[in-house]
């Protein structure tokens, strides 16, 4: 990979990015986490163009967020009601269908962006216009906020992939620890190659990345921390997914992800023990 010196210039106040923030349910214990997620958007040195908050139609969560004080950047926030399924995949896919910018990003409501994430994205988009997806290095924390590790940094290891910093299919087939939280991705990739597949439990993120790289999407990890992810918070959807699955079923879903990425559509597979 040819490394490019990022040019210092007057930064645009537009990113051409829409943030999708899915919220299936807010409780008294998770409302403070939602506050932090919103604060992490408002504190960006370069703000996204739009924030779409996806909630279940007619829910108490929608009622709460529709009257929420979003602060100084309130004009960029829009609360949507989804009358379909409320799992993560369907919420994201619904949000994507409403995006009008070139790029979109995903923020979980119990996570937060680093303050200069979108500033870094704008700089790297200008320096590497051939890229379709930018991943952040993610700082993973547990439910108490204690640091437990990092994600997405492996592409910068020597000989991990064909090009340092670039995620490709061969690398993904041998190493699965990548996450799409905080990513900035061209909306057209969803249009061309499909969205997240609700029928794939637990490994739908892995399958999605495989499908993107298989279809020649250029994926780069920006070598800077850009996102803090709460890993396996008790009560979260991912925590419930994991608790429901035994090790045998988890391996089965991993194998299915490696089979399903050839197809853009969700083929509604079910687990066979």
Model description:
It is a single chain. This protein has nine helices and ten strands. Strands 1, 2, 3, 4, 5, 6, 7, 8, 9 and 10 form a ten-stranded mixed beta sheet that branches. It has one domain: Spore Coat Polysaccharide Biosynthesis Protein SpsA, Chain A, CATH 3.90.550.10. It has helices spanning 31-42, 60-66, 88-96, 117-127, 169-174, 187-193, 204-214, 237-244, 247-260, and strands spanning 17-22, 50-56, 77-82, 103-106, 112-113, 133-141, 147-151, 166-167, 184-186, 219-230. The N and C termini lie far apart (44 Å). By secondary structure, it is an alpha/beta fold. It is 31% helix and 21% strand. Helix 7 runs parallel beside helix 9 (247-260). The mean pLDDT is 92. Strand 1, helix 1 and strand 2 (50-56) form a beta-alpha-beta unit.
Write down the overall mean pLDDT: 92
Biggest β-sheet strands, sense, barrel = 10 strands, mixed
Count helical runs: 9
The H/E string reads EHEHEHEEHEEEHEHHEHH
Helix content: 25-40%
CATH superfamily: Spore Coat Polysaccharide Biosynthesis Protein SpsA, Chain A
Concise overview:
The chain is an alpha/beta fold and 273 residues long. The protein is built from 9 helices and 10 strands.
Features:
single chain; alpha/beta; 31% helix; Spore Coat Polysaccharide Biosynthesis Protein SpsA, Chain A; 10 strands; 9 helices; globular; 273 residues; ten-stranded mixed β-sheet
């Amino acid at each position: 990979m040819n490394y490019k010196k990022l040019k210092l210039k007057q930064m645009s106040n537009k990113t051409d990015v829409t943030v999708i923030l899915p919220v299936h349910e807010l409780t008294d214990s998770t409302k403070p986490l939602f506050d932090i997620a919103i604060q992490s958007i408002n504190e960006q040195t370069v703000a996204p163009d739009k924030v779409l908050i996806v909630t279940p139609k007619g829910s108490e969560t929608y009622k709460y967020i529709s009257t929420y004080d979003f602060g100084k950047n309130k004009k960029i926030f829009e609360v949507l009601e989804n009358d379909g399924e409320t799992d993560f995949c369907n919420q994201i896919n619904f949000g994507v269908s409403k995006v009008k910018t070139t790029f979109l990003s995903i923020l979980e409501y119990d996570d937060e962006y680093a303050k200069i994430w979108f500033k870094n994205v704008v700089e790297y988009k200008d320096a590497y216009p051939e890229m379709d997806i930018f991943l952040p290095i993610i700082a993973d924390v547990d439910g108490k906020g204690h640091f437990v590790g990092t994600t997405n940094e492996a592409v910068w290891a020597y000989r991990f992939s064909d090009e340092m910093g670039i995620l490709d299919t061969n690398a993904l087939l041998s190493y699965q620890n990548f996450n799409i939280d905080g990513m900035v991705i061209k909306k057209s990739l969803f249009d061309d190659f499909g969205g997240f597949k609700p029928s794939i439990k637990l490994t739908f993120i892995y399958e999605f990345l495989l499908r993107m790289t298989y279809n020649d999407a250029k994926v780069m990890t920006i070598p800077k921390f850009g996102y803090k992810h709460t890993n396996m918070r008790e009560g979260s959807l991912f925590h419930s997914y994991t608790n429901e699955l035994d090790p045998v079923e988890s391996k089965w879903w991993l194998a299915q992800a490696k089979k399903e990425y050839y197809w853009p559509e969700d083929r509604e597979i079910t687990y066979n023990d």
